Amino acid sequence: MTSETRRLTRKGQETRRRIVAAAAQLMYERGLTEATLEDVRAAAGVSGSQVYHYFDDKQALLLAVIEYQTEAVLDLQQPLFDKLDTMAGLRQWRDSLVEYQRRLQCRGGCPIGSLGSEVAENNPEARLAVASGFLRWEAAIRQGLQAMHARGELRGDPEDLALATLAALQGGLLLTQLQRRVKPLEVALDASLDHIESLTERDRPHAGTASAT
Amino acid sequence: MTSETRRLTRKGQETRRRIVAAAAQLMYERGLTEATLEDVRAAAGVSGSQVYHYFDDKQALLLAVIEYQTEAVLDLQQPLFDKLDTMAGLRQWRDSLVEYQRRLQCRGGCPIGSLGSEVAENNPEARLAVASGFLRWEAAIRQGLQAMHARGELRGDPEDLALATLAALQGGLLLTQLQRRVKPLEVALDASLDHIESLTERDRPHAGTASAT
C-alpha cells in the first residue's frame, strides 16, 4: 500500500481497488496496449472523472496493476511460504502451484511474468516494478532454503538455488500456458526440487528422486 | 519455408523476408499491437501493395514473424546442438547463451518467449505456432540427452530433463531481461546442468558441482 492509498477513505480505497482489478483483468485479456482507460472505466462501472481522480494516466494505473498482481500472486502462496524450509514443504508448494494451473486450465501463465514480458523493452519504470515484485517472490523462496542451509541440511548457495527455482517456475508457467498442459510446470519444478534434494543428501550415492529411473 | 514462399521468385523471397524482418524488429520494440502494417511497410521500405501481396493481413505477418524468430533462435544455437550429448557440450551451450545475453546487455529476452507471452490468451493460432517453435527447441536439447541416456551415461528421463532445461532457460531469460543482468540465466542453467550431471554420476556420494559449496 502506497502513501497515496493510505490517504483515501475506505470507500475511496474500494473504488480504487475496483478500478485496478478491472484494469488487471482487461490487460490480462487483451494485452496492455489494447486495454484503454475508457474500457477500464466501463468495466469498473465508475465515471471517467473517478478514474482520473485515482490515476493521473495509464502509466499510474499500470504500476498499480503490477502491484495488485504481485500481491495476488504472493497472497496465494503465502500459506505455503513458511514451509519452504523442508523438502516436504517444497513439494507441497510445487503441488499447489501445479494444481492451481490445472484449475485455470493452464490459462494466463504468470500474471506478473506476462506483464514483465510486455513492458521490459519499452517501459523502464514498469520493468523495475515487475522486477521488484519478483525479488519479493525470490526472497520468500530464499528464506526457506536459507533456513535449511543454516540448519546444515542443504549444501549449495541458497540464494542461487532460490533464483534458479523462481526461473524454473517462470519458464514452466510460460510453457504450460503455451501448451495448455501442466507437464512443463511439473517437470521444471521437479527438476529444481530434485536438484535441491540431491544437495540435502549426505551419504547416498545417487541423487535425485522423481526423475531418476 | 511454406508452400507459399516456395512459389516466390528469388527477388520475391527477398522482399518478403525484408518485410518479415522489419515486422519482427517493430514487434520487438513496440509490442505486437503497436506495430501497424503501415509502420512495417515504412520500415521495410516497400509499398503497401507489396505488403498485401505477401501477407493477407497482420495475422499472416505475425505467423511469419514467429517462424522467422524461431529460425533465428535455433540457427544461432545450431552449431552447439550437436554437442549436447556430453556435459562439456552442455556447459559450452550454457556459456554461449549467457555470453549472447551479455552482448545484448540483457535486452530482448527470448524473441519467441516474448511473442508467446503476448499472444497466449488472445490468439490461439499464434499460440500454437509459438508452442511448435518451442517443441523444435526442446527436441534439439532432448536429442543430446537421449544420446547420453542411450549410452548408459544418464539416469532419469531425457524427455523430462530436456523440457525442464528449456523451462529453466526461458525463466532465466525472462528474469535476466527484467533485471538487466545475466545472473538469473546463469544460475538457472547451472542448476539445470548440475542436476543433469548429478544423474550422470554413478559412484560419487555428492552430486552437483557449480552450486555445491
TrEMBL record, chains A, B:
PROSITE patterns: HTH_TETR_2 (PS50977). InterPro entries: Homeodomain-like_sf, HTH_TetR, Tet_transcr_reg_TetR-rel_C_sf, TetR_C. Residues 36-55 bind DNA. Keywords: DNA-binding, Transcription, Transcription regulation. Pfam families: TetR_C_13, TetR_N. It comes from the Bacteria. Residues 13-73 form the HTH tetR-type domain. This is TetR/AcrR family transcriptional regulator. The lineage of its organism: Bacteria, Bacillati, Actinomycetota, Actinomycetes, Kitasatosporales.
